[in-house]
Structures are given as structure tokens and as C-alpha cells.
From TrEMBL:
Protein localization: Cell envelope
SMART domains noted in UniProt: PBPb, PBPe
Gene3D superfamilies, per database record: Periplasmic binding protein-like II (3.40.190.10)
Superkingdom as given in the UniProt entry: Bacteria
Family: Belongs to the bacterial solute-binding protein 3 family.
Protein name: Amino acid ABC transporter substrate-binding protein
Entry keyword set: Signal
Pfam families according to UniProt: SBP_bac_3
This protein's record includes keyword Signal: yes
Keyword Signal: yes
Domain Solute-binding protein family 3/N-terminal positions: 34-258
MF annotations from Gene Ontology: ligand-gated monoatomic ion channel activity
Signal peptide start and end residues: 1-23
Source organism of this protein record: Pseudomonas parafulva
């Protein structure tokens, strides 16, 4: 009898240990009272820093709604994009919410939620090239110089689909765009939502926006591999807000209105 009880207790102990090990990011956030999200706040209009030093944007508002549904506060953790996956894997925050494209390469290292929006790569080109450059294929020549943000799909696409052109990346989007504005680069390769804003905000009349996306890029939240409980919660949250009007309200605020631009001056 004693041996039986001893084995049963060992089994219960092991079960508790496994359950504790399986506690995911969402459970941890609820216990802590804060949802910590890693982001590089330079991606208009998804996450960016306003003139008061606050991080605002479309994705930020979605995450605020998510944190509210959990009964916790949102804590944004500014992280350079090219180091954001290692930072997640070393527990600097609970999840990545930084306009990250769900790629197969990244999916080997992370679990992803369902996409919360789908975008595609587009081009900002020097005004002098209008008519000469009609698509990304026209840039695939060693005489052209491309730029984008390091570690992004803009960089990946430039090197894969426009590989004959010279490439030089930057740590943030604004520096890369200014390279084209100043005539040091011929084109900036980046997501459509950013480029549609940047052409007017930073273009200074010197850029042309080629608006036809030439890639398919679902953006999603990234978590550590194996955290299926958290993925389940996030996916159900996304389904809820896409059917109760919350998603449309947030989307229209950032993509159909321009009031937020005043906060960036």
C-alpha cells in the first residue's frame, strides 16, 4: 500500500511539474499583471514613437485590446528588429508584436498566431526613375542600388528577387528612405502600409510610390515554440475582435484617417 501511495504521489508531482513547465506566455502575463510585448517602434502606422515619446499605432491598439481582455496592462519593450527573436527566446518579453511577417524560415524558430493583417512589399523610387522603373523586375540590374531595413522581409525580398542590384540596409526605415530622397539609392523596398505614409511624410516630393504589392505577407504575433495555449487564446481573441467591430474601428483609425500624423510632427 505504501509503495502504491508513493508511486501515486510521484505521479502527481510529475504531473504538476509538467503542467508548470507548460505554462505559457498568456498564463505568465495574467499572473504577472502585465503583457510584455517586444517591438521596434519605427514601423508606421503599426508601431511608432510620437513626439511625446509614447509608442502608438495600429498593432499597439490591437495589443492594448488584447491586454484589456486578459485584465492586465500592456508593457511594450523597445527592441532592435534584427535582435527581436533572440530577445524573445531569452525571456526579455512574452511575445513579438512588431509587424512581423510569418515566413517559413521564422516559423522554424517560432510559433505564430493567425495573421491579423496581410500586406505586401512595394517600392518607393527616385522621382527621376518614374517611367523607367515600373516594377521590381526593372530594378534587377547591377546599375541600381536598393535599400531597406535590416532583418526585415524588405531586405530578404530585395536580396532574393532583385539580387542583381546592389543592396545596403539600415537599422531603421527612415534612414533608408532618406537614402532614396537624397539620391544615394534608387529604391526603398518595404511593406505597403509604411510606404503609403512615407511617400508623403518623408518623400519631400522626390519619391514615387509604386503601389502594386509583389509579395504576399501575413503579419502575425510571434511566441516561443510549443506555446499552444497562448496561440489558442490569441487566435480566439482575433476572431472575436474581427466580428464585434473592434478590429474595424482600430483599422479605420490608422488606415482611413490621418489625425495620428499630427502626433508625429
Amino acid at each position: 500500500m505504501k509503495k502504491y501511495l508513493s508511486r501515486m504521489l510521484l505521479g502527481v508531482t510529475a504531473l504538476v511539474a509538467v503542467s508548470a513547465a507548460q505554462a505559457g506566455a498568456i498564463d505568465d502575463a495574467v499572473k504577472r499583471g502585465t503583457l510584455r510585448v517586444g517591438m521596434d517602434p519605427t514601423y508606421m502606422p503599426f508601431e511608432m514613437t510620437n513626439k511625446r515619446g509614447e509608442i502608438i499605432g495600429f498593432e499597439v491598439d490591437i495589443l492594448k485590446a488584447m491586454a484589456k481582455s486578459m485584465g492586465v496592462k500592456l508593457e511594450t519593450v523597445s527592441t532592435a528588429y534584427d535582435g527581436i527573436i533572440p530577445a524573445l527566446l531569452t525571456d526579455k518579453f512574452d511575445m513579438i508584436g512588431s509587424g512581423m511577417t510569418l515566413t517559413q524560415e521564422r516559423n522554424l524558430r517560432l510559433n505564430f498566431s493567425e495573421p491579423f493583417i496581410v500586406v505586401g512589399q512595394t517600392l518607393l523610387i527616385r522621382k527621376e526613375l518614374q517611367g523607367e522603373i515600373k516594377s521590381y523586375k526593372d530594378l534587377n540590374d547591377e546599375k541600381y542600388r536598393l535599400t531597406s531595413k535590416l532583418g526585415t522581409t524588405g531586405e530578404m525580398v530585395a536580396k532574393k528577387l532583385i539580387s542583381k542590384a546592389k543592396y545596403h540596409g539600415y537599422d531603421n526605415e527612415q534612414e533608408a528612405v532618406m537614402d532614396v530622397v537624397n539620391g544615394k539609392a534608387d529604391a526603398f523596398v518595404y511593406d505597403a502600409p509604411y510606404n503609403v505614409v512615407a511617400v508623403n511624410k518623408a518623400g519631400a516630393g522626390k519619391l514615387v510610390y509604386l503601389e502594386e504589392p509583389f509579395t504576399y505577407e501575413p503579419l502575425a504575433f510571434g511566441l516561443k515554440k510549443g506555446d499552444y495555449d497562448s496561440i489558442n487564446f490569441i487566435n480566439n481573441f482575433l476572431h472575436q475582435i474581427k466580428h464585434d467591430g473592434t478590429y474595424d474601428r482600430i483599422h479605420d483609425k490608422w488606415f482611413k484617417k490621418t489625425d495620428w500624423l499630427k502626433e508625429m510632427e
